[in-house]
Structures are given as structure tokens and as C-alpha cells.
Amino acid sequence: MNKDNSQQCQDDAADLPTNLAIIMRGLPGSGKSHWVEQFIAAYPSEVAQQIKRNGYCSTDALFIKQGQYQFNLNLLSEYHQRNLTLFIQALSNRQPVVICDNTNMARWEFMAYDAAAKALGYQVRHVLIGDPADPEHQALCAQRNQHGVSLRQIQLMAKKFESF
After folding, report:
1. Which of 102, 131, 141, 92 is nearest to 22 (CA)?
2. What count of other Cβ atoms lies within 10 Å of the Cβ of residue 29?
3. How far apart are the two ends of the chain, measured CA to CA in Å?
4. The sheet that has 20-25: what strands, in order across it?
5. CA distance linking residue 150 with residue 153, whole number of Å
6. What is the DSSP letter of 55?
7. Where is 68: in which H helix or E strand?
8. Residues forming beta bridges with residue 99, ordered by sequence position
9. Positive or negative torsion for Cα 103, 98, 57, 29
10. Do the beta carbons of residue 43 and residue 37 sit within 8 Å?
11. Strand pairing report for 123-128 and 68-69
12. Neighbours of 46 (CB within 10 A)
């Protein structure tokens, strides 16, 4: 992320109201988690820690065992459901900022997050990182994703991307 994007995250964090739900979108390796880290870091330390503990929901985080990312395709569906449950619990507990950090390439993948947040009175902001249709972006994502997702898999995911 360049300096301008980092500054934008800081400006966004300072200006955004409470009762904010952020739904991240983008290919693996696009920089979603990095954007979230920058956004959270722009808050005062105590608030940032609260968001990390109680308002940051990532399916990837559920695959971390003893500090290591251990993807298991057999658990993916269950972990996506768990992540949605954690997101709804955070909303129900009135966390000021709740973040869904998943790929969310197709609308059906984030519809429940969006609907739950709106039903509980949250402002919803969708943040797309990169252009999934751009072949150069796809290649970059394949190089830097930390989950072993191949360029071919990323290209297939990109074809399923639904814009608004």
C-alpha cells in the first residue's frame, strides 16, 4: 500500500462514525488484510485493540492454529458460517466498528453480512481492493497471497466477481 492509501485509511478512521460495518472485497493477496490493519492502526491504541478483539471477523483467522495458517478445505464452509456468526455477535454486542475480512467475490457471499448490519442499524461500507478483472492485478495477487492460491485459481475467482 502506498503512502497515499495509508493516509486515506487514517483519514477514514478519523472521520467514520460508530456503528460502522466494513465488508472487505478482493482477491487473495490483493491487500485486504493490510488495508484493515492500516485502518485499525489509525484509531487510538485502546480502540484499535477493541476492534481487533471484538470487531474483526476473518475466516482466515479461524485457520490459524498455534500461530500457523493451516488451510483445510473440509472446514471452509463451517468456518465461513462461524465467521458470519462472529460478525453478527459483534453487531449484536454493539461494537462500534465491525469488519468482515473475506474475499466476498460474489454478492451471495456477503449478502448476509450486509443484511445483518443494516438490520441492526449499522452504516455499511464495502471496500474493494484492486480490480479483479485486471490481469496485472491477478498476477500480483498470485505472487503475494500467503495461502498458496495459484494464478489459475485467482483467475477463476476473478471471473466470478460481481460488482454492484
Report:
1. 102
2. 23
3. 24
4. 56-57, 97-100, 20-25, 123-128
5. 5
6. T
7. strand 68-69
8. 22, 56
9. positive
10. no
11. unpaired
12. 7
Task: Kindly calculate the radius of gyration of the chain based on its CA atoms and give it in whole angstroms.
Answer: 15
Residue in the block written with cell 480490480: 131
Backbone phi, psi, residue 58, to 5°: -140, 125
CA dihedral of 86, 24, 2, 157, whole degrees rounded to 10 = 120
Q: 160-164 long-range contacts, Cβ below 8 Å, gap at least 24?
A: 160/105, 160/106, 161/105, 161/106, 161/132, 161/133, 162/105, 162/106, 162/107, 164/126
pLDDT tens for each residue of the chain, 164 residues long = 444 454 555 555 555 458 999 999 999 999 999 999 999 999 999 999 999 999 999 999 999 999 998 989 899 999 999 999 999 999 999 999 999 999 999 999 999 999 999 999 999 999 999 999 999 999 999 999 988 899 999 999 999 999 87
